[in-house]
Each structure stands twice: as C-alpha cells, then as structure tokens.
Amino acid sequence: MTPSQPLQAKYLQEDEISQKCRDLLPLLPREKGWITTSIYQYQGFWYPPKVLSGLLACQDHFQAHDTDVLLITAPKSGTTWLKAILFCLLNRAEFSGSMQHHSLLTQSPHNLVPFLENGLYFGQEIPNLASFASPRLFASHLPYHLLPTSVKDSGCKLVYLCRNPKDTFVSFWHFANKMRSKATGEMPLGECLDAFCRGAYPFGPYWDHAQGYYKASSEMPERVFFLRYEEMKEDPHVHVKRLADFLGCPLGKQELMDGTVDGILRMCSFDSLSALEVNKSGKLSTEVETEWFFRKGEVGDWLNHMSIEMGERIDRVTQENMHGSGLKL
Ligand code: PAP
Q: Which fold has domain 4-322?
C-alpha cells in the first residue's frame, strides 16, 4: 500500500462484497461514512458495505450451537476488554495455577475471540468453524433483531456490554481517525457528532442497539446478560463472578480464595494488555493495528474532547430515543 492510499482501500474494500450485497446496496438509504466512503441503512441500522456483506453471509450460514457464547457490543463499548475476560473465564482450567503460558500473552483478544460479521464472515469464503472447541466464543456488533436465526433458536448465551454513549462516541471518533489515512485526514468532531445523533454511523443508532438487548435480557435473563462498562470498571470482581454464574461455570470455593478472579482481572487490565507486544505492534487480518484498541480505557474521557453542550446534546437525543424502555444510559 502506498502512503497516499487511504487505508480503507485495503480494509473494507467495496469490490470484495458478495453479489447479494451488491444487488442490495442501490436500494438502501446511503450516508457519508466516517471510515468508508459510504454507509448504508439496512433494517434500521447503518453499515459499511463490506460489513453488510458479512452480516448477510453470517445470517445465511452461521449455525449456532447450544453451548456457544456470543459477546455483543456496539463498537467501542469495551469489546476488547470483555473478549479477554470471557476468554479467561471459559478457558481457566487450561491455565490454572500459572498464567505464564496464557494465550493472551501472545495473541490479540480479537484473534482469540473473533467477530462474526466483522471478521469470520468478512471475506468471500464461508468460514469452516470445525476447529473451534466447545464452548465456542464469538463476538458480534449486530443488533438483536439481525442476529442469525440459529442464534435465537439455539440455547446459546449472549453477553451484551454497553457503555456511556458520550465515551463510546469519543472512542469511536478517535478510532475512525486512526483508520483513516493521513491523506484522508481527520473527521471534524462536530460533523461526527451530528451523524451520531442521527444514528448514522456503523452499527448505529446507539440507543436502538442497546435497547434491543436490554429488552431481550429482561425477557430472557438466563440467555442474555446485560452489562455496563462503567459497572465493570467500578466493581469488576462482582461482575466477573456474575458472568461466571451466567455462563454456567461458577467460580468454586477454592477459586474464590486462591486469587483466580484477581489473576484474570490483572491479566485483562488495560495496563497489562496494552503493554504486550502483540497488542502494541500487531495487525489483525483486517489490517487494523492492534494498538488502536487501547487508547485510555477510562470513564468520562468525553469531557476532554467535547463541550458540556455537546454532551448534553447526546444526553438529550439518547433520552428522546429511549421509548420508555426503562433503560438508563
Ligand atoms: P471494538 O468494539 O471496535 O472491538 P473496543 O474494544 O470496544 O473496540 O474499544 C476500545 C475501547 O476500549 C477504548 O476506549 P477509549 O477509546 O475510551 O480509551 C479502549 O481504550 C478500551 N479498552 C481496551 N482495553 C481495555 C481494558 N482492558 N480495560 C478497559 N478499557 C479497555
């Protein structure tokens, strides 16, 4: 890739989409994208073309198993962190006693817990998932109503992580600017804020995304676990234990005393993960640099980038779009 070529020319290439997606695009509402030239609205949510292609392939081909665990997030809600924690929880027997040879030391959480529409089903070929051991752990940014039918029909478990919309927005804006090449330049924050408030950014609208899973978790608490980034930050021990219970692998008496939870949280902390070589200088198959997933990892960083008025605007639009769901963000 030459320095003057926008990164998106290699990532999210529009000419690599499926014929099904290609036929669909002209029929869909279109907006300017933050990373790709355009994003398209499909069944109420917005996607870059290649992600839409992955979504359609995933809906057509992904067969969920009853034992699967899916981590679902809107982008920039703390996906990388929860991927690491869930991987540790579900594979803790393998690494009991010593974290020295833990897979997280040498592999990105995004490789250990791959995305569906945004990863495994991203290319032209239907992936072979036979090598994934049970319980399989995947991630997705898909809204609830667009999950593959097999996910809803199976007994698989969904963990949904959401984050304060103002921090989510600021995190996404930073990430989008990294994804854009120097030649394309930064997106003005105000322009992105307008789009965010209209819901027109990848996997938006934010509030519809969160509400879909909040409703599902209220109706099926044994299948859908609703968690907030901020509460994980405040009391991670409590929520790791709740997660283990939900996933059907509760922490035993011995584990509760021998520092297992401390070990997992230390391993998955922002400081530990971001200091690892694989997360400092690695690249995912999508060309995304692993260090872009680690910026600050703090609650309330939006105040360093937006005015109070801008924050109030996000609060107002979030409030207006809550439709009396009972969800407070
Ligand atoms: P994705 O949805 O595109 O996969 P995601 O991991 O949700 O990305 O977004 C990265 C955010 O999670 C960053 O937030 P920030 O921009 O506000 O800093 C990143 O710093 C944060 N993050 C990554 N790892 C951790 C961690 N171990 N603990 C807490 N926050 C983290």
A: Rossmann fold (3.40.50)
